[in-house]
Write a sequence for this structure.
């Protein structure tokens, strides 16, 4: 046994000395120290040694194994060190490794661009929960129980009085409940409606705006929105305010911009009208101010809400809203 171990050790060290590449060293290591290797066999063989000599044989075998392990480790370290030298392993003709770079989702980019415009105008950013109380989503916004906007078809109900918010307007109420005027906030976020086709997804994004103070007029609303549209698109893009209805604003307006595709001439995107509807807006309804305890003689304000996907689609010329949420890297990489 003793002789055999000595021979094995010498043989291993000799072969190791004669090997100069990493692959060869690895093969040898497996042969001698692997799970089915020579040393494992030796150690197993110890059970056949007469009981009296067994402890001695075991000790010897373990010593040899340890010495071989050290020798192999050192050999590998030497090879690794060598390969770091320029003359050794560096192949300057290999192509470089490219790094895959991530980027922000186009909706995030547009949200940030719009937010920056408002931050420069002195607005702050507010937030509210996606799972919202019926009170904030409807009741406090002067949307009575029988209003069509509450129809089961549009709203995802969690329970009788909890919904997935259908718009960002509940954030208006949450902000006004906590603070008194002057208020200048925008609130970007996800909203949910039971709806799905080329221009609707069950989840989409809105940006809410709210400005309240003394002497805030419809003229301020027009000024802010005109600045916004000119900065997102360009100075030549004109706006049109059409009378409309929202329970929480009076008067209310729907705001169109001149079609950015055909420049107002009429095309498929604007259904040959030359105009595109981009947001809803109006002067905050006194009933809403009363819900949050504001003095309706002293304060006035305006609010607006716009769909972010719609703006992004126009800005980038995208014709199907679902593309934003299919997570196709080839689509997302273009922004
Ligand atoms: N919340 C309205 C919607 O989702 C938009 C809006 C916001 C209208 C604020 C007026 C004032 O359609």
């Amino acid at each position: 046994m003793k002789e055999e171990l000595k021979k094995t050790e010498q043989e291993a060290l000799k072969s190791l000395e004669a090997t100069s590449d990493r692959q060869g060293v690895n093969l040898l290591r497996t042969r001698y120290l692997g799970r089915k290797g020579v040393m494992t066999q030796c150690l197993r063989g110890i059970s056949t040694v007469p009981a009296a000599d067994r402890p001695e044989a075991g000790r010897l075998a373990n010593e040899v194994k340890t010495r071989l392990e050290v020798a192999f480790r050192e050999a590998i370290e030497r090879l690794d060190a060598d390969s770091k030298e320029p003359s050794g392993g560096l192949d300057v003709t290999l192509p470089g490794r490219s790094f895959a770079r991530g980027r922000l989702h186009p909706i995030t980019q547009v949200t940030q661009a719009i937010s920056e415009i408002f931050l420069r105008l002195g607005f702050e950013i507010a937030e509210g929960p996606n799972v919202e109380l019926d009170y904030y989503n409807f009741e406090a916004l002067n949307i009575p129980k029988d209003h069509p906007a509450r129809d089961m078809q549009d709203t995802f109900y969690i329970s009788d009085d909890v919904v997935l918010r259908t718009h960002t307007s509940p954030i208006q109420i949450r902000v006004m409940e906590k603070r008194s005027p002057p208020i200048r906030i925008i609130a970007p976020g996800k909203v949910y409606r039971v709806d799905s086709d080329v221009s609707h997804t069950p989840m989409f994004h809105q940006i809410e705006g709210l400005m309240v103070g003394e002497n805030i007029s419809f003229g301020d609303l027009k000024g802010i929105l005109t600045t916004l549209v000119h900065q997102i698109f360009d100075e030549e893009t004109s706006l049109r305010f059409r009378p409309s209805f929202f329970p929480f604003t009076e008067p209310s307006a729907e705001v169109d911009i001149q079609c950015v595709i055909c420049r107002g001439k009429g095309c498929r995107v604007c259904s040959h009208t030359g105009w595109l509807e981009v947001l809803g807006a109006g002067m905050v309804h006194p009933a809403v101010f009363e819900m949050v305890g504001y003095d309706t003689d002293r304060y006035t304000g305006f609010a607006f809400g716009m769909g972010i996907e719609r703006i992004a689609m126009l800005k980038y010329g995208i014709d199907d809203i679902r593309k934003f949420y299919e997570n196709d890297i080839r689509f997302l990489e273009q922004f």
In short: Residues 167, 169, 246, 249, 280-282, 303-305 surround phenylalanine (CB under 6 Å). Residues 2-82 form one domain. The chain is about 40% helix and 20% strand.
